[in-house]
C-alpha cells in the first residue's frame, strides 16, 4: 500500500533543500527520584566526579566543533564548561546534598530547575536560549549520575535527516555534515543555537514544527524545505522530482551569490548603496566578513550586559569593541549604546515592574538617569575608537533634548579622556535610531544636529501602529509596507539628504525582498541586515534600477493599504 504523504509546517531555520531517510533521535528519559542517603560526603564526591566526566566530554565536543565549525561556534561549549565550574550553580547543589541528606540527582535537578525557570520566564529570546544551555549541561551530568547513555549523534554513519523533539547545541555540534543532510525539530525558533549552527554548517533545517515526532517513523522518506519551512513525509514521485529541481536551482543560485562577496552593491543604473550587517557579539563578525558586508550597521551591545549577574566593566566592554573594530579593518561599525528595557531585561538592575515596558523606562531614558552605566560604556567605546571606523548611535530617541543631553555626556567623557592623554578617534560620527514617530516627524530638525540616522523599523512599526511586537494576536499590524510607514521613512530620508546626512535602516525591513525596491526608490543609503541576507539582497539590488524603483516608491506612497503596495511591487519586479 502506498504510504500517505503528510506535510508538516514549521519555522524555516536554515535555507536549502534536502531529502533522505529519517533518523529519529529519541530523547532518553532521565527519571529523577528523591532518595535519602547516609553518607553525604561520598554523595558530594559522586556528584563532583559526574561533573568532571561531563566536562571532559564537553572538551572533546568543543575541540570537534572548533575543527568543524570554527572558534566562534565552539565558544558555546567553553561556556558550557564554565557553567559546570560555576559555584553559583554547584554550591547550592552540594549544600542541598549535605543539609537534606538527599541524592545528587535530585539536588541537581531541583536547583538547576530553579535557574532554568528563571531564565525561561524572561520575555527575551536570548535569555530563553541560556535556559536551553543549562538544560543541556544538566542532562549530561544527570546521565552520568544515573549511568544512562545519551544518544550520540556523532555515531551516525549513513546519509540521514535527523528528526527530534529538540536538538541540544551539543547534539548539533556533533553532527557529521557528510551524513546528516538536515534536521527537523518540534521545538526551537530561528534564533535558537541549533538553528544558528545549522546555518553555519549550511544544512537545511526546519524547527518548531510541534508535531513532526508524532508523525514520522524511523527510516521513512522525508523532504526538508528550509526556505518555506516545511517537512514532507512520504512524498510522491512528482513531489520528489519537483524538490530535486528546486535543490539544483538553489545550488546554482548560491554559486551565483558567492560571486558577489567582494562586489559593491550597485543598481543597474549605477546607484551605489551600502550593505551592512547587524551583530550581537564580536563572534558574529566572522559571518559578516564571509558574507561580504561593507560594514556593521548595528552592533546591539545589550548582549554584553545579559546572561550575567552584574554590569560588564569598562575594560570588558573595551575589549569587545576593540575586537569588532579591529576585525572589521577600517570598515564602518555603528555601535548602538545600551538599549535595555522592553523585552530585554537586566534582572540585576532591579528595576521596578512596569505595566507597559515597551513604553517605559528603557534605552536612552535609563542611560540618561543612570549616567554611570552610560559613561562607562561611552568611555569604553571612545578608548576603542582608535582601532577602526567607529560610529556611535543612541537608541529610542524621542526628543531633541534627549539627543543633546546624550551627546553632551559623550563629549564630556571624550574631553576627560583627552585630558588624561588617551587617544580618541577625532572623526567619530554621532547618530540616532529613528524608531519613535515623534523623531521621524521632526527629522528635519534632528538632521541639522545628528551625523546620521538609522531607521529601526521593528520599533517604528510597533509604535506607529500601536501594536506590541511581541503579541501574536496583533502581529497582523506589523505592516512594513503600510503607506503610513513608507511616508515616515520617506520623510526621514528627505530630511537627512537636505542636510547632506546619510540614512541607514537596521530593522528587519532592510533585508526584506518586497521592501528592498521601495527603500532603494526612497533613497535609503545603507541597508543593515542579518549576515546571511547580504548576498541575496546584493543580488536583488544589482538587478534593479534606481529610476524604476523611485517611480514605484512614489506610487506606493500614494496608496491606501499594505496589500496594494505588495501587489504593486510584485507587478513591477
Ligand atoms: C533595530 C531595531 O532595534 P531592536 O530590534 O534591537 O529593538 C529596531 O527597533 O528596528
Ligand atoms: Mg528598537
From TrEMBL:
Location in the cell: Cytoplasm
Catalytic reaction annotation: L-histidyl-[protein] + phosphoenolpyruvate = N(pros)-phospho-L-histidyl-[protein] + pyruvate
Catalytic-site annotation from UniProt: 193 (tele-phosphohistidine intermediate), 506 (proton donor)
Biological process (GO), any one: phosphoenolpyruvate-dependent sugar phosphotransferase system
Domain PEP-utilising enzyme mobile stretches: 157-229
EC number: 2.7.3.9
Function noted in UniProt: General (non sugar-specific) component of the phosphoenolpyruvate-dependent sugar phosphotransferase system (sugar PTS). This major carbohydrate active-transport system catalyzes the phosphorylation of incoming sugar substrates concomitantly with their translocation across the cell membrane. Enzyme I transfers the phosphoryl group from phosphoenolpyruvate (PEP) to the phosphoryl carrier protein (HPr).
Name of the protein described by the UniProt record: Phosphoenolpyruvate-protein phosphotransferase
Organism: Anaerobacillus alkaliphilus
Gene: ptsP
